[in-house]
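Weekly sync, protein design subgroup
Attendees: M.S., D.O., the rotation student, P.L. (late)

Item 1: inverse folding check
M.S. brought a backbone from last month's batch and wanted to see whether the design step gives back something sensible before we order anything. D.O. pointed out we never logged the input encoding, so this time it goes straight into the notes. C-alpha cells as presented (514 positions):
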C-alpha cells in the first residue's frame, strides 16, 4: 500500500462520522413529526381527546423524541360532564352488586379521565366496591389514594369511617363506628391484665404471608390496622372518629404490654382531644401506664413525676371519678418511691465511703418525706454518722450517745503505733551525687535512702510524734529552712498549712533564695 492510500484511510473516518450524524438527525426529526401526526389523528377520531391538552396521556405513543419547536395548543375549558357515561355504567353494576365488574370499570374511568372531575367520584366508588366485596386491603389503598390526592375531598368523612371500620375489623372488632368492646379499658388492664377477660387480639407473624383470607392483607394484619387508624386521625383530626382511632390504638398497645407506645397515644388524646368521651379514661389509665414505665430508683424519675401530676389533675378535673380511694393510694405509693430514690442515693455514697454526701441525702430524705418508712433508716444512719457530718438542714437531729474514748494505757498491744506522716513537698531535694540519693534512680529527686552500712529501723521503733526540723536529714549544701507567715507579702500563693509555712532555702531550679 502506497503513502497516498494510507493518507486517504486516515482521513476517511471523520467524513463517515459526519455523514452518519446527519442521517441520525434526519431520522429524529422524522420520528417526531410522525408522533405529532399520529396524536392529531387520534384526537380527531376520539372525541374524549379533544380536551386532552390539560392532562398527560396515560399511554403516549412514540413520545420519546419530542419536537421542541412545536407550538402548544391553547388551554381549553374542561367539560365537567366528560366521563359521566362510563361512570354511570359502572355505577349500575355496583347497584346490581356486581362488585368485581364495577371495580374494573371504575378503575378504567380513573385511568382514562386523569385529573378530570369524574376521577374523584370514581376513586371513592372504587374503594366502595372493594369494601363491599370484603377486600379490605384493596379498599384501604383506594381510600388512602383518594385522601392523598384530594385532601379536602367531599368524601373525607365517609372515607375515614371506612378506614376506621377496616382497622376495627382487623383488630377483631365488629366494624361499627363505636366498637364498644374494643374501646373498653380500665386500670386493671394495666395492673393485672390476667384478671380481665377481653377479646383476643389478632396474632400474626409480620413476615408470614396470608393466602387463604381475602379480607386480610398479605402481610402484617395488626400493623395495617394501626396504619388505617392513623389515617383517620391524621387526615381528619377534627372528625367524629379521630379520638376513637387514637384511643383504639392506645388500647391495642396496652393489651400487647407495649406501655411506652400506649403512653405516647394516651398523651396525644389528653392534649389534642380534651373534650373527648375518652379523656377521663386517658387520665386514669395514663397514670398507671406512667408508673409501669418507671424503671426504678437508679433511673430517671420523669415518669414518676408525670404520674403524680396526672393523678392530681384527675382528682381536680373529674371529682366523680370512680375508685377515687384507689387513686389516693397510688399517690402514697408514688411518694414512697420518691423516698426510695433518696435512700438509694445515700446507700450509693455510703459504698463510696463519702459520709458528707451520704449525710446530705439522708437529711433531705428526712425533711422531704417525714412519714416514709425510709425516714427511720435515714435517722438511724444519721445517728451513726454523728454531728461531725451534720449540715444543719434539720431542725431536730437524733440523739447521739457519747462513748468513752479508751486511753493510751488501755490500748491493745496488737494496735500499731502511729506512723510518721509524709514529708512536705517543700523540702529541698538532695543534690546529685550525694550520699542520700538513690544510685539506681538518680532522676527521682527527693528519694531518701539510708547511708551505707545502715538500714531502716524496724516499724516498732518509729517515734510516735512528728519529727522536728533538726531531726530531718539534711544534705550537703542545703540552706536552713526559712519560716514565713501567711500574711507576708512575699508569701507564695498556693501553699497550704497553718499560720507559718516552711520554704526551703533553694528555689525550684536549685538556686539559693535571697
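Designed sequence read out in the meeting:
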Amino acid at each position: 500500500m502506497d503513502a497516498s492510500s494510507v493518507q486517504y484511510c486516515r482521513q476517511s473516518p471523520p467524513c463517515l462520522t459526519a455523514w452518519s450524524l446527519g442521517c441520525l438527525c434526519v431520522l429524529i426529526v422524522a420520528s417526531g413529526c410522525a408522533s405529532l401526526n399520529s396524536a392529531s389523528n387520534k384526537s380527531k377520531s376520539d372525541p374524549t381527546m379533544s380536551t386532552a391538552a390539560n392532562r398527560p396521556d396515560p399511554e403516549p405513543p412514540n413520545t420519546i423524541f419530542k419536537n421542541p419547536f412545536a407550538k402548544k395548543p391553547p388551554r381549553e375549558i374542561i367539560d365537567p360532564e366528560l366521563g359521566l357515561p362510563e361512570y354511570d355504567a359502572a355505577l349500575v353494576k355496583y347497584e346490581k352488586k356486581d362488585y368485581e365488574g364495577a371495580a374494573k370499570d371504575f378503575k378504567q374511568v380513573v385511568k382514562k379521565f386523569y385529573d378530570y372531575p369524574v376521577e374523584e367520584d370514581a376513586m371513592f366508588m372504587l374503594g366502595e366496591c372493594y369494601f363491599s366485596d370484603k377486600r379490605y386491603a384493596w379498599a384501604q389503598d383506594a381510600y388512602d389514594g383518594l385522601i392523598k390526592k384530594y385532601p379536602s375531598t367531599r368524601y373525607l368523612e365517609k372515607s375515614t369511617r371506612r378506614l376506621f371500620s377496616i382497622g376495627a375489623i382487623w383488630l377483631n372488632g365488629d366494624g361499627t363506628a363505636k366498637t364498644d368492646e374494643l374501646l373498653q379499658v380500665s386500670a386493671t388492664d394495666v395492673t393485672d391484665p390476667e384478671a380481665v377477660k377481653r377479646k383476643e387480639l389478632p396474632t400474626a407473624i409480620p413476615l408470614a404471608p396470608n393466602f387463604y383470607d381475602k379480607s386480610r392483607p398479605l402481610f402484617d394484619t395488626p400493623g395495617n390496622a394501626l396504619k388505617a387508624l392513623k389515617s383517620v386521625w391524621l387526615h381528619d383530626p377534627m372528625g367524629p372518629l379521630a379520638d376513637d382511632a387514637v384511643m383504639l390504638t392506645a388500647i391495642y398497645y396496652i393489651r400487647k404490654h407495649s406501655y411506652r407506645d400506649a403512653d405516647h397515644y394516651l398523651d396525644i388524646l389528653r392534649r389534642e382531644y380534651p373534650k373527648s368521651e375518652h379523656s377521663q379514661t386517658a387520665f386514669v389509665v395514663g397514670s398507671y401506664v406512667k408508673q409501669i414505665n418507671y424503671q426504678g430508683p437508679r433511673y430517671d424519675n420523669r415518669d414518676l413525676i408525670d404520674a403524680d401530676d396526672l393523678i392530681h389533675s384527675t382528682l381536680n378535673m373529674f371529682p366523680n371519678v370512680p375508685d377515687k380511694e384507689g387513686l389516693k393510694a397510688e399517690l402514697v405509693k408514688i411518694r414512697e418511691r420518691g423516698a426510695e430514690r433518696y435512700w438509694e442515693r445515700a446507700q450509693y455514697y455510703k459504698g463510696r465511703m463519702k459520709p458528707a454526701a451520704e449525710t446530705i441525702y439522708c437529711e433531705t430524705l428526712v425533711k422531704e418525706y417525714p412519714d416514709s418508712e425510709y425516714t427511720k433508716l435515714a435517722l438511724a444512719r444519721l445517728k451513726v454518722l454523728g454531728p461531725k457530718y451534720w449540715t444543719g438542714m434539720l431542725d431536730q437531729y437524733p440523739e447521739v450517745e457519747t462513748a468513752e474514748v479508751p486511753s493510751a494505757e488501755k490500748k491493745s498491744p496488737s494496735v500499731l503505733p502511729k506512723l510518721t506522716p509524709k514529708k512536705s513537698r517543700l523540702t529541698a531535694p538532695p543534690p546529685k551525687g550525694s550520699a542520700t540519693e538513690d544510685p539506681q534512680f538518680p532522676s527521682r529527686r527527693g528519694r531518701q535512702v539510708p547511708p551505707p552500712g545502715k538500714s531502716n529501723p524496724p516499724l516498732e521503733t518509729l517515734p510516735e510524734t512528728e519529727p522536728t526540723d533538726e531531726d530531718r536529714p539534711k544534705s550537703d549544701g542545703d540552706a536552713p529552712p526559712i519560716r514565713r507567715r501567711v500574711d507576708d507579702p512575699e508569701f507564695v500563693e498556693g501553699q497550704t498549712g497553718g499560720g507559718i509555712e516552711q520554704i526551703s532555702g533553694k528555689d525550684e531550679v536549685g538556686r539559693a533564695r535571697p
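Discussion: The chain has 15 helices and two strands. The longest strand covers residues 482-485.
Action: P.L. to compare against the previous round before Friday.
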